[in-house]
Structures are given as structure tokens and as C-alpha cells.
Model the fold of this input.
Amino acid sequence: MTTLLSLDADLSKSIEDFRQHIRAYQSLLKQQGTWLLLATLGCWSVAHGAFQWAAYAIVLLVFVDRMKARTGDERSFKKIAEAIAQQIHASDLADDTKKARLWDLKEVQETELGAKVATRRNLLFFVCWLFFGFSFMASVPFFRP
Done:
């Protein structure tokens, strides 16, 4: 009985850790968005076109590398959720307890990863990347009027 309670507690902890991982990632996106905005404004100060393009390329490489280095778990959120669901299905818990843990996992996915929630929580990040993209396009002679 204690083993099953311990297993249930471990699964609940895995689900809560998953929720915290998602929130930490979203917080990281906000922080990186702010730094991206500042780096983009710094690219504007480069006067010569070729060097400005190089500055934009460096900013892009740096921010992609920083995001990869800081996320910790390399798996996608979908793969993490699938792994937790597999642990739940493979456990020796009662069916009602399995259903409860699966419901908890589904609730995390809906409240933390839904399109509306993700867009609302990461709006600053998206706007900063759009600003970066438009700024880069404005520096390319082809797009200038």
C-alpha cells in the first residue's frame, strides 16, 4: 500500500515538475525577448550595411544558442507529457487513480500549453522577434523603398 501511495506521489510530483518546467520556459522567453529587443536596437547603430547584416546574424545565432543552452530538458513538451502518460499507464495504480493522474496531466497541458495561454503569456517574446525580423528586413536594400 505504501508503495502505491509513493508511486502516486511520484507521478503527482512529475506532473507538477512538468508544470513548473513549462512556466520556467515561459519566463525564460520573456527575459530573452527583452534582451532581443535591446540587441536589435544595438544592430541599428551599425552604420555600414554588410556589418549591420553581420550584426543581425550574430544576434540571431546568439539568441538561438542561448535558448538551447538554458532550457535544460531537450525534449519537447509533447514528448515529456507522453513520457509521463506512459509512466501512468505502466504503473500498478488502481484505474481510478490512473484516470485522476491522466486528468491532472491533461489539465496541465490545457492550462499551460493551450494556444491562447501560450500566446498571451509569451506575447512580449513574439513581438520582439517580429520587431527583429522587420528590422532585419528594413536593413536589406531589396525591401527599402
The CA atoms of residues 47 and 139 lie 10 Å apart.
